[in-house]
Amino acid sequence: MAEDLGERTEEATPRRLREARDEGNVARSQDLGSGLALALATLATWGLVSLMFNEGQVMLRRLLDLGALDDPAATETAWQALAHVGWSMMRGLLPFLLVVMLATWLANVSQVGFLFTAKPLKFQPERLDPIRGIRRIFGPSGLVRVSLDSTKVLIVLSVAVLTIVQYQERLLGLPTLPMLDGMVFTGWMMLDLAFRTAGVLVLLGILDYAWQRWKRKRDLRMTRQQVRDDMKEAEGDPDHRRRRLRLQQQLAMQRVASAVPRADVIVTNPEHVSIAIAYDPDTMRAPIVVAKGLDHLALRIRQLARRHDIPLVERPPLARALHREVDVSQPIPQSFYRAVAEILAQVQRANEQLASAVDVATGEALPA
After folding, report:
1. CA–CA separation, 200 and 211 (whole Å)
2. Whole-prediction pTM value?
3. Residue 238 domain flag
4. Which domain holds residue 78?
5. What is the greatest pairwise CA distance in the chain?
6. How far from each other are the two terminal CA atoms of the chain, in whole angstroms?
7. What is the per-residue pLDDT across 235-271, written as a single tens digit (0 to 9) for each?
8. Angstrom distances, CA of residue 13 to CA of 2, 22, 221, 268, 307
9. Residues 6+ apart with CB under 8 A from 253
């Protein structure tokens, strides 16, 4: 019934998920990004406060030194003062700005990974529809978003109020403190408030990120017909797939038919795996796998081997390992040298005994 009504009850296919990601449709929480960026920026401020304070002292000292000159209003003196101030500000603020930029980048990468797409920037006429815009703002999803954002603001304000209440007694005594002590206290209080706010934003962001992932997964659901159409587009028409499979099997059979007669031995499983190995000490540095196959192809290799009088040797573990680790037309790895050498030596001895028996039988059959 759900299929007849076109209800989206099926999970999105991997192809649909890739297309949505390429279009910029990813699960992302702005609160989580803001919280992580604020936390790292606060840590940077805490770690770089001494550097910025020292650079500020250097800047003030240089300005006072320039003010003691004979003509502080001269153009050259003004440019020199501006250069000193700019250089001191850059040295003091540049590390902080770099850390903030890195924090913002990491906050986004941690959620969506490495993603660069220009599709969200493409002009879409439907975005200019005022009716859809009003529905998006005042619809159920818009009201839920406004309610959540209002709740987040209230939570952050509550954290700020509780922090100020905690420092209430010391704030009341702030006018009686020396200037330097007052600045230090104010700075530590602001850092504490920033850390608490960042922690709340990160916690809310994690919840929001989980919600965004669930919502994206729900929105990308597909009907059964859409899943079938998507699989057909991704994998091709079933008839074409069957024809390609038959063609691939025919090509594999042709390669096997031309390669097996050149083999010296066939290592088998004995039924499900067949490995054709050839070795010529004059032209090869190591034995080579000239053909391999499973099931029907393995049966075909054994049939061709019997037709061309190529010996079959049952070594199930060796056959499975060679099929798994060695490609066709590639030499066997050194770890298989001993096992394959024993098989080739066994085959050579059997051929020599067979040749001797044939010679004896032929000699006995000759007339005196």
Report:
1. 17
2. 0.46
3. no
4. 26-219
5. 136
6. 94
7. 655 666 677 777 877 887 888 888 888 888 889 987 7
8. 18, 14, 9, 40, 48
9. 297, 300
